[in-house]
Amino acid sequence: MAGFFSRLKKGLSRSREGLSQLIPGRARQQLSDADWQDIEDALIMADCGANMVEELISKARRSRKPVREALQEGMLARLKAVQSDNAETAHQPLVLLVIGVNGTGKTTTIGKLATMYRQQGKRVLVGAADTFRAAAVDQLAAWVERAGADMVRQHEGADPASVAFDTVTRGYARAYDVIIVDTAGRVQSDHGLMNELAKVYRVIGKAHEGAPHEIWQVVDGGTGQNAVAQVERFREVAHTTGLIVTKLDGTAKGGVLLQLTERFGLPIRYIGVGETLEDLMPFDAQAFVESLLPALDDEEANNKKN
Ligand SMILES: Nc1nc2c(ncn2[C@@H]2O[C@H](COP(=O)(O)OP(=O)(O)OP(=O)(O)O)[C@@H](O)[C@H]2O)c(=O)[nH]1
Ligand SMILES: [Mg+2]
User: Which end of the chain is less crowded, N or C, counting CB atoms within 10 A of the terminal residue's CB?
Assistant: First the structure.
């Protein structure tokens, strides 16, 4: 866990440094309007989104607490509400559909999830419903094999809905614990591909009523403002039930989680902090806020006292 946390901290270091410099431990009375403007700008630069920033700032201005504490509290209150504590495992089997824009990390995340569920002793079946490129299926196959899971595949160019149907049918027939369907990346503005995704979703429901139980959209943490448009459209088409935000070990600014939470309130299930099978952590609001806007370090705290 310490390793995950340090990767997250490293990934968010740019935002953290930007915010930490600007957001002092001082009480609000000591700050001018210009200081508040700077803080607002820093939060916007960290991708927190205009509405969220307005909410945070207005709460912090009214709070009696030091500015940094007040902002942390505001962030935490919002993010705690979307921390999900993995309630997904209540379904037996769990049918999970993974969706999102190209290259956000769907296939990699499925490899990580399959590994995690296998480590919990569960039997995992993965369906390769990204049939556009043979390479996509091979990439998934490699992850699935490493995870010790099983896979359903058809020929290149097969109907993705047909692969999804087969996967879910077989998963139930053979009593798997977790059934995961990978899909091709698509841009939310591509009507044809979005309709195809709607069909995948529908057909899974025909394979088994009530499925899929979870529809997780994978969002690249570095996306910024466009993430909102992505989630909006995918949710309409495929009834997204949760988010996974990846690449938070890279150059992501992190605030996009706040922006998405303010806008959609969808549970954030997991976050991705690297490219290996282990680099997936359940979303922990406290750890995340501490990485983005840490408590004052000892030196600053001492200065404050003096
Ligand atoms: N640093 C980092 N890289 C990641 C993470 N998750 C995925 N990646 C990388 O992102 C790239 C794309 O990952 P894929 O899993 O192929 O993404 P995808 O969404 O399946 O892509 P398409 O199927 O083409 O839409 C790969 O190079 C992954 O190694 C993460 O949490 N951190
Ligand atoms: Mg993929």
Answer: C
- The torsion region of residue 145 among left (phi > 0), alpha (psi -120 to 50) and beta comes to alpha
Question: What distance in angstroms lies between residue 260's CA and the mean position of ligand 1's atoms?
Answer: 20
Q: Which two tokens stand for residue 1?
A: 């866990």
DSSP states of 177-209 = SEEEEEE----TT-HHHHHHHHHHHHHHHHHST
Where b means 16+ CB within 10 Å and e means fewer, 16-46 reads bebbbebbbbeebeebeeebeeebbebbbbb
Q: Whose CA is nearest to atom 10 of ligand 1?
A: 105
Nearest atom in ligand 1 to the alpha carbon of residue 139 is 16
Residue whose pair of structure tokens reads 């459209």 in the numeric block? 233
Pocket of ligand 1 contains residue 275 by CB under 6 Å:
yes
Span 294-306, pLDDT tens digits: 776 544 544 554 4
Residue 189 predicted with pLDDT over 90:
yes
